[in-house]
Design goal:
With 748 residues, the protein is of the alpha+beta class. The chain contains 14 helices and 30 strands. A hairpin with an 8-residue loop joins strand 8 and strand 9. It is globular and about 90 Å long.
Length: 748
């Protein structure tokens, strides 16, 4: 293409937005390009956030500095869209078409500077500041016309003196609530700044406490605040008035009564197989003689509804009729009805493993409440075809080249065997589960047959943080690998016994402890797990008749028992990048390490950590990054590309809603996997590679959210590639490279 033609095309592309912009701003109106708040004193983030929420209008949204939605809106002339919609209407079609999708679906009408709207915004800001104790606050709006593309709105705030609480008075005369208990732990204290937000928090605290004390009829409507602002020293006297209830046709209020739980009855007349009494007593948090607490009713309903054997749950209350007693009593009847005992489900999904992807089909048969313990017996048959990258050559394959068939049996019940359910706190929500799985997998290099058994217990450690502990008390596994002739030849070519060990039969006898919890006020989460095998196998070998070699390896027949400790964890942080609902900034930190014990030279590949992939450092396909500086040109023996003994990576994403269906994500990843140091300077360990082995990538992703599942397409560009030779690793030193990933769900 001649250079003058390319120059002309670039000029048209670059000048088009400004041409559209000139059409908009040529009239009397001016685009609102931005708005800001300037204050004579520093405001807290919370107050500033509330002020920003007062904006009645906002500038057109930008992406990479460009108002793409506005440009799309201007591309379609109203006359052309009107004619298109008229033709569709004549054919009895609903509004639609390309023009309609561009202008009305994706496009965004221009946002103009409007004096009236900005003035109303300033009034709203004054109201917000008054609620925060700035009773003399003033807000003025000025326009900054120095921008070439439009005007900027500047809100100038003069706060004045902030009022503080001088005294807190309580008036509970007509309420019937005990003042000493209600006022204890109050949120409003002398000297605190006056804030409507704090008043509302105090209202909520009072109502929750009243509920726990059994005052079932008391709610937020009975709490009233009276503020005395006549003090010239900017001090406010706050009177908290708790009012009584007024019955129908009554001229005066009567005190609220503390209602206690009387008897708790269970109606299982509609149950085909009733639940056992210990199970019901554990699930129901209502107890005789305690106060009428709405939270206990809500938790009881939630816990019962979580039992798959139950279809209908009703909590029927029998309130007292007499009003002449100090305390009322309410009897509660728990009415439950079971769901069909047997269920058969057909499910289609996608394989979500890091190393393979493809369609997955499941048939599940379920037996609910077979023994009256709220238990679930499940049998699942699944089959999948998948695409996976072979170990013995470097090119990725997107054509399905693998298959898997598995049979899974699971029995799950309430409680922790062998402990009595009555001895466990109700808040722990304990469960026990026994799982047996038999699987057969076909891959390009081998056939894998697996038998797996787990005895699992789990409970809630902290209900507020949703912190849960899962323990595989006993995990037994046997894996048989039947390698293909071509893969066996490749292993012989590599001529390394340690590498062959990664693809040999093995047995596992161990346990696992896992913990996950919410952390932080913004909904972050943390996961941590410890897994081990073969710890006591040497001591049990005389009793079990297992062979122990001179190197300390334990064998069951001809199959070695692997000895290892594996640690894996992640920490996801939600950052409040913006107060807008359509934007979110998330970060994730992942770490993991595996260590072998006596007699085990190296871990099976399935217990290692993989570099790259759609959930790792996304500039590389799965197992094309690491370990360390290892590359496809390397001839280092005993190193398997993309598989390491420990992992460290960090990822960050800025996500924003483009439309109701689509979300765009800008992301950056860094990290790698490494092998343990073995004394050889092969670049596969951290000691032999150092910081030069840390990979960096950045990219953009498109997410399609269909509510019941989310499709993700991520494209990443390599910024620093440790798989290249020194001097060619940074993106400015070599030709561009990267990877494209298709997956389900967000990466974290």
């Amino acid at each position: 293409m001649p250079s003058y033609i390319a120059t002309g095309i670039i000029a048209v592309v670059l000048l088009f937005p400004f041409h559209a912009l000139s059409q908009i701003t040529s009239a009397e109106r001016h685009l609102l390009v931005s708005q800001s708040i300037e204050c004579n004193e520093k405001l807290s983030d919370r107050v500033m956030s509330k002020l920003e929420e007062s904006y009645r209008m906002r500038p057109n949204r930008r992406f990479v500095g460009m108002t793409w939605r506005l440009y799309a809106y201007q591309m379609i002339r109203p006359e052309a869209l009107s004619r298109s919609l008229t033709r569709r209407d004549e054919r009895n079609k609903s509004p639609g078409g390309l023009r309609y999708a561009i202008r009305e679906g994706f496009g965004e009408p221009p946002s103009y500077y409007n004096n009236d709207e900005h003035y109303r915004t300033s009034l709203k800001m004054v109201q917000v500041l008054n609620q925060e104790g700035y009773l003399q606050a003033r807000v003025e709006v000025t326009a900054d016309s120095s921008h070439i593309s439009g005007w900027k709105a500047i809100y100038n705030i003069d706060l004045g003196k902030r009022w503080v609480i001088n005294k807190v008075l309580w008036n509970t005369t007509t309420s019937g609530l005990p003042e000493d208990q209600i006022s204890d732990g109050g949120l409003l204290q002398k000297g605190d700044p006056l804030s409507i937000t704090d008043l509302q928090s105090e209202r909520e605290r009072i109502c929750k406490l009243a509920g726990r004390l059994g005052f079932a009829t008391f709610n937020e409507g009975f709490v009233k605040f009276e503020l005395d602002t006549l003090n010239l020293n900017a001090g406010v006297n706050v009177e908290i008035i708790l009012r009584g209830q007024r019955l129908e046709n009554a001229s005066t209020s009567i005190p609220h009564k503390s209602i206690m739980i009387g008897s708790v009855f269970f109606d299982q007349s509609n149950m085909t197989k009733p639940l056992m009494s210990p199970i019901l007593n554990h699930l129901v948090t209502l107890e005789k003689g305690t106060g009428f607490d709405p939270e206990k009713f809500a938790s009881t309903y939630r816990r019962l509804s979580g039992v798959s054997a139950l279809k209908i749950v009703e909590l029927k209350k029998d309130y007292p009729i007499s009003n002449d007693r100090n305390y009322g009593v309410v009897d509660v009847t728990v009415d439950i009805q079971d769901a069909p005992r047997y269920d058969l489900a057909l499910e289609f999904d996608m394989t979500r493993a890091d190393t393979r992807y493809g369609p997955l089909g499941k048939i599940t048969w379920t037996d609910n409440n077979s023994t009256g313990r709220g238990d679930v017996l499940t049998w699942t048959v699944s089959a999948a075809i998948a695409s996976t990258q072979p170990f013995s050559y470097t090119s990725s394959s997107i054509v399905p080249n693998s298959g898997e068939f598995s049979f899974l049996g699971s029995y799950r019940t309430i409680g922790i065997f062998p402990l009595r359910l009555e001895t466990l706190p109700k808040s722990t929500e304990p469960h026990s589960e026994w799982l047996i799985q038999v699987a057969r997998e076909s891959r390009p290099e081998y056939y894998s047959s697996t038998f797996d058994y787990r005895h699992r217990i789990e409970w809630t450690e902290n209900p507020v943080r949703r912190s849960r502990i899962v323990i595989d008390v006993l995990h037994l596994s046997y894996v048989n690998l039947d390698v293909s002739d071509d893969f066996a030849d490749w292993l012989e070519t590599e001529d390394n016994e340690v590498l062959k060990r990664r693809f040999s039969d093995y047995a596992l006898t161990g346990s696992r402890i896992g913990w996950n919890s919410l952390v932080g006020v913004n909904g972050g989460n943390m996961n941590l797990s410890f897994e081990w095998s073969g710890v006591a196998s040497k001591f049990l070998s005389p009793l079990m008749g297992w062979e122990v070699t001179d190197e300390g390896e334990v064998k069951i027949g001809e199959v070695p028992v692997i000895k290892f400790l594996r640690v894996d964890g992640s920490w996801v942080i939600n950052n409040k990048f913006s107060k807008r609902e359509d934007m979110v900034f998330k970060s994730r930190f992942r770490f993991g390490g595996a260590f072998v014990g006596e007699g085990t030279e190296i871990l099976p590949y399935s217990k290692g950590f993989f570099g790259g992939g759609l959930n790792g450092v996304r500039g590389w396909p799965i197992r094309e990054l690491g370990p360390g500086n290892y590359s496809e040109e390397s001839s280092t023996p005993g190193v398997l590309r993309g598989v390491g003994d420990y992992r460290l990576d960090v990822s960050s994403e800025f996500r924003f809603k483009w439309t109701s269906l689509t979300t765009v994500a800008l992301f950056a990843d860094a990290g790698n996997v490494w092998q343990h140091e073995n004394g050889e300077n092969n670049g596969a360990s951290w000691r032999s590679s150092g910081f030069s082995s840390i990979a960096f990538s950045a990219g953009i992703g498109l997410r399609l959210d269909f509510e019941f599942f989310l499709i993700r397409l991520d494209a990443a560009f390599r910024l620093h590639d440790p798989t290249q030779s020194d001097g060619e690793r940074w993106f400015i030193e070599s030709r561009p490279n990267g990877a494209i990933h298709l997956g389900l769900g967000h990466p974290f």
